[in-house]
Amino acid sequence: MFRLARLAPDVRQLQKDSGRSGPPRGGATDRAPREWQPRGGSFARGGAAGAVAGAATPFRGRDSRGSRDSRGSHRRSDRDDRTGYDRYGSEGSKREWKVRGMTPPTSTNPYTLSQRVKKHLDRYPDRMTRPQVDELLAIVRDVPPDMATAPVWNLVLARMGRDGYYSAMWKSFNEMKKRGTNATSRTFTVLLNAFAGVAHSGVVNDSFAPASKPERLTLERVRRVYDLSQAHIRAMLKAQTKNEGSRDNLGVAYPEDHDEMPTLLPSEEVSVWPTNAYLKFLGRYGMWKEMEAVFMAMDREGPLAPDGATYYTMLNTANNVDHYHRSMKDDSLPAIEVGSVGRAYWDQAVRSGVEIDDRMALAALSCLAAGSPADQRVAEELIPRLWDLSAPGQPASATGAKGKYSLPRAWDNLPTFSLDVRTATTLLSTMRRMGNKSLVAHYTRLIADGPLARNADLALLRVFIHNLAFAGDADGASTVLETFQPPSGSDGWPIDVYLSVMGAARWAADWDIALSTFRRMVALPPTAEGGIGKYIWKSPNGRPQDVRGRPWVPPRPHPVNPTAMGLLFKTALAAAKSGIKPLRAATDIYEFYGPDTFFEVRTSAGVVDMNAGEAKHWDLSRRDYGFIGDAVELARDLEVAAERLAETPRNTEDREKHEAMRRDAARVVRIWGKKVEERGDKKPRPRFLRSVE
């Protein structure tokens, strides 16, 4: 209940002069004439110093509607004078704002300041510009230092790091310390996560870019922040009583007049989060040896022991380093026995009792799948146990049954995870690294024939096709291609999907699947095969909808390329039981498009005419030589096909035509094949960036 204060003497005098009683109306008579308006904090006429009545009222809080006098004190607002309400009375404010969580609307405290910062951040959901960042900093700079606590600064630093303003973030961190605000464990975590490229501790660092090492200054700052965090944690460990961990030191913001504020213990500042964030930073750049040193220095038990995020970061980085070292042939990263390393970290995580999720399990399987045959057998045994699937050779009802390989007893109580689209995509992709075709085919068919396929996205459908093609099941891969409408709509299937099906058809010597897939990929007109008319798209199943009830959408065709044409020739050569007919059909398609379509390669230096008879010494990139290498591979297939056709000609002209075709292809192989081989030992230059998904 509001308490009305006694009218001030100056107000009563104004009422007496005006001949009426009661408070003034509309505030017209309580204001001085324009020439009497205060300047410089004084209320005087003709320059004489005169103090406003009531100016000696003690100041409590900060009123944005008041003004300062020459001595730096605050006057009450005009509205308070008009109503006669003593806003800052000794008892009035306590009763007015007694409700928990409420603060005077004009006051500034850590709680209201944090709300202002959040409102500013919500106003710019996308990356902020530098002027907008300056506005954000102005919010915390324009208040007393004790109001901008560590949680408020954490909001500011986190957003600056997320938007990539690392230098400004570092300067703001130093400014925070100069203003007397003590950093917390969360502050250090925010800074380290920002340098690691993640928004917060709950986000996984999917990027891996060892080719782009961090700058020396950045590395020094990150190590400095990590050292400060460990010193802060050691200081908190020394605090034995809860009173030693004051709210001011921890920088926690609470609403003004908040009763029963919980006392924070120093143990709440003793957290493994800064270490996890530092490991994410090291893992992003493949700094494996330093990661192992940090991990070995961690406690084995207690609040500073490794948790689930720690083990996942180690397993994921080990897999990334091994994959990069093998695929890029780069000796800058250490060679890791990823199978044994992953097995050791997984075993320690299980025995330590940390929470194991499917993300950590997939990271461990990725390491085991790339390891030795013994490690791969462990992965083969873990898959049915973790996801309750039937192993190869077992009935579908025998889900999660033990296989033929024994596992440690400590692993008997492993959790069972549900299989969703994302997990199935990663799991099936990981199996392909094991090289066991029967295992890959079994689990791929098991999931593709199950209810999960109805919700499959483009990534999972692609994995279905790639895995079946890898296992040599050309018919199964082609069935998936013609059963599901891809979620990409009119973009259709990516070109790698078509090439994967054609590759499986090549090894299966299935000319019909290879030709039908090629037709759909490039929208091959009938004239290319000796017919008439244009290409007319038809739904694969002859119905307007696919198996999931989604309408078929005619896809945009892909341009013909040397790789697809080469697979068509390889399949025709492999289909010897069909006679010479597939080979003639492939040659007719090649002649329909013409040699220039395949041997005039567009590169960064211009168009390279491989039929010109000489290889110009252009400065071509590795990607350019990749395109040229595909054309050389097609020339080898064309040379063999032309030689075979020249041996069984239709007539003399047909023989001469195929002999000329063979000579041209042989010249391309002789000239450009040597150039490609010379570039084969060059190390790759492009930045390596891959996702764990």
Task: Furnish the topology, listing elements before pairings.
Layout: H1 9-18, H2 78-83, H3 92-96, H4 110-123, H5 130-141, H6 150-162, H7 166-178, H8 185-196, H9 216-238, H10 247-250, H11 273-284, H12 288-296, H13 308-328, H14 338-352, H15 358-369, H16 373-387, H17 421-432, H18 437-448, H19 458-470, H20 474-483, H21 495-508, H22 511-522, H23 562-574, H24 581-593, H25 595-599, E1 600-603, E2 606-609, H26 622-647, H27 652-678
Antiparallel strand pairs: 1-2
Helix pairs in contact: 4-6, 5-6, 6-7, 6-8, 8-9, 8-11, 9-11, 11-12, 11-13, 12-13, 13-14, 13-15, 14-15, 15-16, 15-17, 17-18, 17-19, 18-19, 19-20, 19-21, 20-21, 21-22, 21-23, 22-23, 23-24, 23-26, 26-27
Apparent shape: elongated
Distance between the termini: 60 Å
> How would you classify the quaternary structure?
single chain
Order of helices and strands: HHHHHHHHHHHHHHHHHHHHHHHHHEEHH
In angstroms, what is the radius of gyration? 37 Å
- Give the tally of β-strands: 2
Widest β-sheet, arrangement of strands: 1-2
Which class do the helix and strand fractions yield?
mainly alpha
Fraction of helical residues: 40-55%
Q: On the 0-100 scale, what is the average pLDDT?
A: 80
Portion of residues in beta strands equals: under 5%
Largest sheet: 2 strands, antiparallel
Uncertain segments are 1-106, 247-264, 681-693
With helices defined by DSSP (H or I, 4 residues minimum), what is the helix count? 27
Biased composition (Basic and acidic residues): 60-99
InterPro entries: PPR_rpt (IPR002885), TPR-like_helical_dom_sf (IPR011990)
Family: Belongs to the CCM1 family.
Keywords: Repeat
